[in-house]
């Protein structure tokens, strides 16, 4: 039975779908017809929260959703992101209100819709006060082009500053058993402000997999090649931690990915994980993680065993870490 969670004035099933993988991030894009079929299968399974961005596939992920499922627009809650995009072949950032409004119009056209339910600042543009960027988003709400404002990969302080201008319905950041930074301050701020927390990479970029990953097999375009946790030495240390998770999953009658998702769902009632996949079997299993019941002892054991200081390697290399505004633990500095 799906669990319902609030984002703004709407309710969605507690497991959403991160759509990036269909267009880029972990290898070649999925063939168009296969991707369109996949998205409709997600709707048939019960997914009703789809997350995309102008950055993904340089707009092609939005175009994919626009062609694949907009004939079923009344069946799902749609989220996209602006501020960060590909400009002249390079990733760029523009948080000026006028730029945000232009980007939103471009997203609406690619998505083949006149309304985005949740529109995020994909990253903080440090050249523009967040209050000004949120003001631009508030104008989009007033114009009826977006329903809710979101921010992504930002700190509790930035969330509060943004929320003081206009209610922030959701903040999106990486959160999993292996990435616990939101626990420093953002999750408490979300509870205080009534903001949903949307967790991307909730199975730790495939780390929680029933078939152990082999980083040497990653595609040359796989973004995990850049991430310290997945280099040969660090990954060997991290993968050993899974030996404690396996018997907990067996006792709960679930897969390792389902265990990771169930732990997130048990953590707080405002957390909405959005696992991404291109595999239909995994798509179904991820959605069914809502049926997994973990005892409090299991939740506590997992929390302790995957304590932040036990994970070897930072989640981002220094170059990428400088693009986010999230809190870090002292040992990550």
Please trace the helix and strand order, writing H or E for each element.
EEEHEHEEEHEHEHEHEHHHEHHH
Alpha-beta content class: alpha/beta
Beta-strand fraction estimate = 15-25%
Mean pLDDT: 96
**Strand order within the widest beta sheet:** 3-4-5-8-9-10-11-12
Shape: globular
Cα distance spanning the termini = 42 Å
The unreliable regions are none
Tally the beta strands: 12
Estimate percent helicity. 25-40%
Number of DSSP helices? Answer: 12
Radius of gyration: 19 Å
Give the biggest sheet.
8 strands, parallel
Could you provide a short overview of the structure?
This protein has 333 residues and is of the alpha/beta class. Helices cover 37% and strands 16% of the residues.
Structure in words:
Strands 3-4-5-8-9-10-11-12 form an eight-stranded parallel sheet. The longest helix has 15 residues. It has twelve helices and twelve strands. The model has no long low-confidence stretch (mean pLDDT 96). Helices cover 37% and strands 16% of the residues. It is α/β, with parallel strands linked by helices.
Task: Write the topology of this structure.
Blueprint: E1 4-7, E2 10-13, E3 17-18, H1 32-45, E4 49-51, H2 60-68, E5 77-82, E6 84-87, E7 90-93, H3 97-111, E8 116-121, H4 130-142, E9 146-152, H5 156-165, E10 170-174, H6 186-193, E11 196-200, H7 232-239, H8 242-252, H9 256-267, E12 271-273, H10 280-288, H11 296-305, H12 318-321
Parallel strand pairs: 3-4, 4-5, 5-8, 8-9, 9-10, 10-11, 11-12
Antiparallel strand pairs: 1-2, 6-7
């Amino acid at each position: 039975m799906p669990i319902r969670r609030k984002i703004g004035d709407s309710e969605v099933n507690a497991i959403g779908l991160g759509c990036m993988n269909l267009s880029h991030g972990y290898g070649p894009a999925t063939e168009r017809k296969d991707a369109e079929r996949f998205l409709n299968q997600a709707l048939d399974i019960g997914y009703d929260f789809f997350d995309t961005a102008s950055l993904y596939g340089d707009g092609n992920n939005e175009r994919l959703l626009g062609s694949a499922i907009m004939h079923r627009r009344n069946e799902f809650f749609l989220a996209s992101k602006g501020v960060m995009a590909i400009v002249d072949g390079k990733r760029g950032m523009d948080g000026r209100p006028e730029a945000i409004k232009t980007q939103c119009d471009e997203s609406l056209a690619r998505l083949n819709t006149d309304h985005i339910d949740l529109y995020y600042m994909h990253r903080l543009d440090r050249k523009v006060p967040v209050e000004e960027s949120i003001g631009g988003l508030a104008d989009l709400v007033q114009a009826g082009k977006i329903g809710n404002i979101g921010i992504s990969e930002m700190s509790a302080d930035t969330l509060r500053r943004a929320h003081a201008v206009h209610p922030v319905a959701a903040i999106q950041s990486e959160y999993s058993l292996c990435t616990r930074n939101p626990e420093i301050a953002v999750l408490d701020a979300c509870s205080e402000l009534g903001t949903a927390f949307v967790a991307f990479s909730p199975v730790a970029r495939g780390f929680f997999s029933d078939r152990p990953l082999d980083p040497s097999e990653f595609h040359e375009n796989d973004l995990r090649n850049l991430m310290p946790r997945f280099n040969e030495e660090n990954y060997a240390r991290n993968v050993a931690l899974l030996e404690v998770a396996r018997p907990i999953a067996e006792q709960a009658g679930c897969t390792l990915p389902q265990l990771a998702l169930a732990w997130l769902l048990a953590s707080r009632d405002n957390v909405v994980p959005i696992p991404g996949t291109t595999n239909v079997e995994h798509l179904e299993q991820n959605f069914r993680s809502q049926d997994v019941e973990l005892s409090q002892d299991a939740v506590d054991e997992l929390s302790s065993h995957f304590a932040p200081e036990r994970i070897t390697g930072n989640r981002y290399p220094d170059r990428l870490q400088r693009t986010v505004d999230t809190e870090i633990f002292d040992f990550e500095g």
